[in-house]
Amino acid sequence: MIAAAVLLVLLGPAQTLSGKYIQHSEEYLKLYGPVPAEHVRVRVEPGGGETVDSICARIEHGDHSAKTYEMLGEALAERGDNGLAHRAFRKAHAQAEEMDRGFKQQMLQRMFDVGTISKEQIQREEKQAAEWVRFLQEYERKQIAAGRDPNDLEPFYAMYGRPEDDMYRTMWRRRASFLIGAAGVLVGLALLLCSRRIVRLFGGVGIIVALSCALGPGLLGQVGLFYWGAAFSAAGGLAVLLWGKKSDEPKVA
User: Looking at residue 245, what DSSP letter applies?
Assistant: First the structure.
């Protein structure tokens, strides 16, 4: 529980503003309850002012007031993060009461004072954040239903990435790790089955495929079927090198 709370202040304002941070399912909250505020580690400036991290932690704990987003925007603008400051002021404008016209106009002005950012980009990031949170809550429900620990998020991160990762890229890498590994398995099986009918020189193909699969987890950050592909390809390549035909052997009629 405390580890999850610490994570809140390590992700950064980009995830806070898009909504891509740990937001537990109802089932999880019924089981564990909300994270106590005193467990959230935030840093406060020596003068008593709040840092970007501490303001983000407040937002991630449910403080979505317009004034809090305004405070975050000012803190971000002060440190030169103008794109994120624009988004914070945009959030403040959206959260403000309709009757508070003066504040909303002020936030609009601050948005343009710090520069602009594509509305489409914001929508893309918020869409990905909403999907990531939905997948997280589904994962928690499945873990709880199966009697497993919903705080063990490593399997979830392997499927959908951490909050700071691009979820779609992580999902693509996971699929690629299975497809490429499966291809390595098929290559290995083909070489094993036909090892006595293939010229030994082609055993090198299996070895190359095996090495490629072995390097896959390091390159893509996903295991998938890479190691299976490496094992089968290596076995097939070695079988051809050991039992395959010599290149100068006459063809059997």
Answer: B
Average pLDDT, integer, range 140-152: 95
Q: What is the pTM of this model?
A: 0.76
Distance CA(132)–CA(168), nearest Å, equals: 10
- Looking at the DSSP bridge assignments, the partners of residue 50 are 44
Partners of 245 in beta bridges: 199
Query: What are the tens digits of pLDDT across the range 28-83?
Result: 999 988 765 544 444 444 445 678 888 998 898 888 999 999 999 999 999 889 99
Backbone angles phi, psi at 5, to 5 degrees: -70, -40
With contact defined as beta carbons under 8 Å apart, do 60 and 41 qualify?
no
Report CA 81 to chain centroid distance, whole Å.
23
CB 139 within 8 A of CB 156: yes
Mention every residue, 6+ apart, whose C-beta is less than 8 A from residue 74: 85
Q: d(Cα 205, Cα 85) in Å, to the nearest integer?
A: 53
**Mean pLDDT of the region 1-15:** 52
Q: With the C-alpha atoms ordered 6, 93, 110, 68, is the resulting torsion angle positive or negative?
A: negative
Helix, strand or coil, per DSSP, at residue 50: strand
pLDDT digits (tens, 9 = 90+) for 227-251: 999 999 999 999 999 998 887 555 5
Closest CA to 153 of 145, 144, 162: 162
Q: In whole angstroms, what is the distance from residue 69 CA to residue 64 CA?
A: 7
Q: Which residue has the tokens 């992580």?
A: 170
Higher-pLDDT residue of 246 and 199 is 199
